Amino acid sequence: MNNTLVIIPTYNERENLRSISARVLAQVNTQLLIVDDASPDGTGELADELAAESPLIHVLHRDGKRGLGTAYCEGFEWGLAQGFDILVELDGDGSHQPEQLDRLREQLDHADLAIGSRWVPGGSVVNWPARRRLLSRAGSMYARAALGLPFRDITGGYRAFTAPALRRLDLDSVASQGYCFQIDMLRRANTAGLRIAEVPITFIEREFGESKMSKGIVSEALIRVTEWGMHAAQERIVASRLWKLFVQIALFCLVGGIGFIVDVGVFNVLRLGPFAPHNVSGGPVLAKLVSTSLAIAVTWAGNRYWTFRDQRRDDVRREAIEYAVASVAGVVVSIACLWATHYVFGLTSVLDDNLSANVLGLALGTLVRFVLYRSWVFARPGIPEPVSVAAQEIDSGLQLRNTGLGDRRAANTPAQFGMNVSVGLPGSPRTQGDQAVEQAPLFLEAPIQRL
Questions:
Q1: Which of 69, 207, 404, 441 is 20 to 30 Å from the Cα of 375, by its Cα?
Q2: Which helix (H) or strand (E) segment is 197 a member of?
Q3: pTM of the model
Q4: Which of 5-14, 84-93, 292-301 is predicted with the least confidence, judged by mean pLDDT?
Q5: What is the DSSP code string of 280-342?
């Protein structure tokens, strides 16, 4: 099994630290890093004592209460620098069971991040009041909907990362704390395309000390998740509109290619035949007028029934007139280029006329026509552009699923394990929480999420 570092941020956890440290070190190939924020109850001093007793315990002292997020990030950086293969987040209050660590580590054979989940089948919560359950479930549901995350437990703090996975995340830019930090890290991991598994765990409410949950932490999470969700929604909408524009340009170019063949073919037939310069004064210009007129008729049909089919008007006559007017603007550009080169600069060969009319003039004329077609001819007054699927999902409050990327859910494959879990130090009194962990059904349901 790979070398594992369990990181426990602490602030006033003296009553819990010795017990949880012993339980962590009882796991195979595991070391412990305690990140203490100058706890006034002496947690930092106790951490130093434990580190003196065991070379597997390490301590980082910080100069004040700087928050959960920065504590984990500093712990990650320290662990990566020391060469650990797996880095684990674990609460210092005993709510996460070190005896279930192997559940997470086993998933890292085929995942980059394993989440200990309370809300998947087999997961459970012990001794939590109804309001805490409601807050946790509501937070996860809101984050799933706002950020398009498919996971059940968005705010859980029992997680195992592989070292390569953490190196792919920009830890220096993480500034969130508490619930918000866990949501932020999961959002970043999902965006980075990490393979993510959810593993059922048993969460037991702390027996000693006070919870660090506060209104400020909840407010921060609500505000930041809303901001992230709005930003993600804007990116999806913009991406959808850009994709639609790209498709329209591609179809427009294809239709234009057909028109180009008509235009060039007819122009050269006329230019070399009845409208040759030695036969008709201004023959090349007349040839261009005829060929371009035929090309306009062909491209109008193609753009109406293909490129802009979802924007075409019911008033065909008006649309055709406006299309012709817009096309004339493009024709004027092409003819102006031809006239300038043929009559002003004296470039009168067939090659010169083709380069002027059918390369430079056509390119500039095409740009003018596309802008006018899209913004005027096929822009139906009073009717908004079709909205992207992502925007429709946002409006209806549905859960976002990274529209356009396909169904990324892997099949769930529950597997029952018959393992006995022993909680607590040898000889220590058994608690209700200990019995709950032993009796909890150990089902593994770990759908892998990959972008």
A1: 404
A2: strand 196-200
A3: 0.55
A4: 292-301
A5: STTHHHHHHHHHHHHHHHHHHHHIIIIITTTT--S-HHHHHHHHHHHHHHHHHHHHHHHHIII
